[in-house]
């Protein structure tokens, strides 16, 4: 029964945490018995079971309970199969969604070598606009996961494609994550490539795209500032934080802080 398998998946994370805390007594129980079940249920015929399996996997990754070898040898191959060009549409949408969500939890090497090539392919998926929409909405997170070099070499060309997509929702999603993408690039790329691209979004024929671009204008401009003098930095939760210079804080410790937090577009999209 699918409901039984769904309930089982919901119990996997707490069991895994218990096994981790009792590792001397159960050194290999999770890897031998539970992890294969999670991987198998990612391809279950029932969508509720698959959803429960995906949620369980993300919790296990957040808790750092999955070994690197299992991620590379068991989890990533399944996701690559499910997101292949000839894969079922529903499976493909689910796979790209979980790839985007788990990218920030994996090592940069794993993401760049195992998941990034497939992500770039999915950005150009001409069959399903839902797949491109997920890629566009999570673009900033992927850039942050792989770093500047891979972003400028592989992702920026795909970002240009998505910003010119015929579906206005794609362009709107790009406008919303523009700051996160810009923050990952060099000042030269920011100035010479992203600025003209942003102007095209702020002049888009669709008012929803223009509105999203104007809302991202301030955060995008902030990426041009010198962090050491402006006090701008990106937190781990994807928000842009603005704080006063240290000397101002030290000069009057009783004065309330004037720090401002601006939500990044990638965080809003999530």
From TrEMBL:
Organism: Quiscalus mexicanus (Great-tailed grackle)
HEAT repeat windows: 115-154
Pfam families tied to this protein: HEAT
Highest taxon, organism lineage: Eukaryota
InterPro entries: ARM-like, ARM-type_fold, HEAT, HEAT_type_2, PP2A_Regulatory_Subunit_A
One GO location term (cellular component): cytoplasm
Full protein name: PP4R1 phosphatase
Protein keywords: Repeat
Signal sequence residues: none
Source taxonomy: Eukaryota, Metazoa, Chordata, Craniata, Vertebrata
Keyword RNA-binding included in the entry's annotation: no
Gene Ontology MF term list: protein phosphatase regulator activity
């Amino acid at each position: 029964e699918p409901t039984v398998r769904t309930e089982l998946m919901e119990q996997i994370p707490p069991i895994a945490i218990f096994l981790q805390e009792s590792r001397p007594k159960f050194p290999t129980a999770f890897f031998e018995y539970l992890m294969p079940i999670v991987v198998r249920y990612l391809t279950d015929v029932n969508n509720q079971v698959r959803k429960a399996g995906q949620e369980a996997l993300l919790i296990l990754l957040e808790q750092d309970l999955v070994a690197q070898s299992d991620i590379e040898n068991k989890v990533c191959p399944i996701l690559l199969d499910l997101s292949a060009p000839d894969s079922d549409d529903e499976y493909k949408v689910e796979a790209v969604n979980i790839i985007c969500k788990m990218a920030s939890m994996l090592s940069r090497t794993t993401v760049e070598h195992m998941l990034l090539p497939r992500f770039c392919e999915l950005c150009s998926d001409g069959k399903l606009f839902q797949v491109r929409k997920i890629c566009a909405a999570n673009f900033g997170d992927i850039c942050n996961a792989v770093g500047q070099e891979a972003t400028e070499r592989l992702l920026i060309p795909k970002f240009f494609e998505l910003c010119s997509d015929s579906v206005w929702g794609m362009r709107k999603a790009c406008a919303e994550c523009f700051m996160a993408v810009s923050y990952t690039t060099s000042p030269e790329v920011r100035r010479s490539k992203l600025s003209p691209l942003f102007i095209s979004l702020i002049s888009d024929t669709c008012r929803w795209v223009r509105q999203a671009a104007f809302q991202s204008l301030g955060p995008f401009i902030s990426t041009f500032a010198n962090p050491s003098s402006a006090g701008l930095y990106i937190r781990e939760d994807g928000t842009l934080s603005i704080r006063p210079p240290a000397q101002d804080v030290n000069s009057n410790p009783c004065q309330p802080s004037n720090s401002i937090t601006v939500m990044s577009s990638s965080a809003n999209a999530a």
